[in-house]
Write a sequence for this structure.
DNA sequence: GTGGTCTAGACCACT
DNA sequence: GTGGTCTAGACCACG
């Protein structure tokens, strides 16, 4: 799964792990229907308490990212189509955008530079996406 | 000061206030050298605990945004509030951009829509900025 | 708060408590903005573990029923307008309706009787609603 | 048998299957005396663990919906599957109605809309019922 | 004082 | 085996 935890960042472990799993889903590294490690296995590999993983899977299930099947395990959910209303989506992303802008502008970046950074991050997410049909192409 | 607190967002109050003060600085509403309200005044106007304001001023001082002069109060710092190296700036903003992208993409937005949202938020920030060509006007 | 827990029903404690709080909210017994008991207090009065109450408040916050303010406590949320899309609402209620119908029909009730039961339950919820302006009227 | 399992709803599989069999009984698709599939057949067609089917038949037998005859298999029970007193029936359905109402009202639906949803669900159940005037037709 | 997170370990239901 | 819930108690951040 390649999840890395920064124990000294102050950010809660469960948030870190959730974010990395979300990223893996968005970038396509985790495909819909794919089975997640069991709570006990993931807890062991991350060296955290099983109940912490329980919370992680719970939160992801709440957000519609994984679905949990009793006795079988957790699985990446099939495309979660619009659980939230479009206004909510807009509001959530708008808030994150504002936060990013405040920090960037405060530290002297221009809007253009910030958007360039956004595009660069998007490129990284896309680059992580497995492209099974064109694996050998490097700079397409 | 026009600081608005969202008590129900789950985001710590001190963080909200810090962010809005930073925003006021980058948008030019607060000019270098300007005096900040006293701790007890700000606490009263924001209806928060004075110790919370203490923490806010401490954090802002730590980030180089205000300077506290013993017995005189807190002032917006003169120097550019840019303590971090360009790489650090890039890293911080990049991280915020990634979080925004992950949420937006996950909820079905395209890169184009997300960037549109960023521009819209930037517009709102700019709208709050006092018009630089009419600096000398006091009560416009 | 008048919350009663049935320890032998097999239904999880947190679900029971959540349901009763939701009921109190829709019936108006708990008003928007009202303060909930602190985690420790509620835990003590319900004689459950504080972490169980943490889970309860967490879930209610996730559903937009309460808002939690760090260091201040939990409060009934101001009217949560349409967090879910109308289709989701329809789906959720439809599922609950179907379940009720299956049980009722299986046990020999007619659609008419079932709907009568629904109306009766609605009456009970309404009856529990505090009516501050017409308190003395009995059978209005 | 036309049983559909929603693996991602979080509801236990055994409960889902039980409910659908009950539904088939009340809607007349399964007639009294009719033979149920063998445990291993049903397990295979539903792609679930045989022990899950064992539990399902046990639960249905316990509720008086099927009767298990040693060495012959399970059959839909002859007598009306009404074990509970009218008061009990009222209580069970009332509880389900209340839960439905709480969710619906909380999400902004009116009583009228909720009852409309109930009728719509009833319509779907009726649509699945084989036409009683054409009972003798086998392959209609 | 408030809630948030994490650990540790128990017991249960489901597959 | 799987996840779900609950208890017990620690430590931290926020107000």
């Amino acid at each position: 799964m390649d999840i890395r935890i920064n124990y000294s960042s102050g950010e809660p472990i469960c948030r870190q792990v959730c974010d990395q799993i979300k990223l893996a889903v968005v970038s396509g590294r985790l495909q819909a229907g794919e089975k997640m490690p069991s709570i006990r296995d993931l807890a062991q590999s991350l060296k955290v308490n099983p109940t912490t993983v329980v919370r992680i899977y719970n939160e992801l299930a709440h957000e519609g990212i994984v679905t949990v099947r009793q006795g079988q395990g957790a699985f990446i959910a099939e495309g979660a189509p619009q659980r939230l209303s479009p206004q909510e989506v807009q509001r959530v992303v708008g808030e994150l955008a504002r936060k990013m802008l405040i920090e960037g502008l405060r530290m002297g970046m221009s809007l253009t530079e910030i958007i360039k950074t956004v595009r660069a991050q998007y490129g990284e997410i896309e680059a992580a996406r497995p492209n099974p049909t064109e694996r050998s192409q490097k700079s397409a």
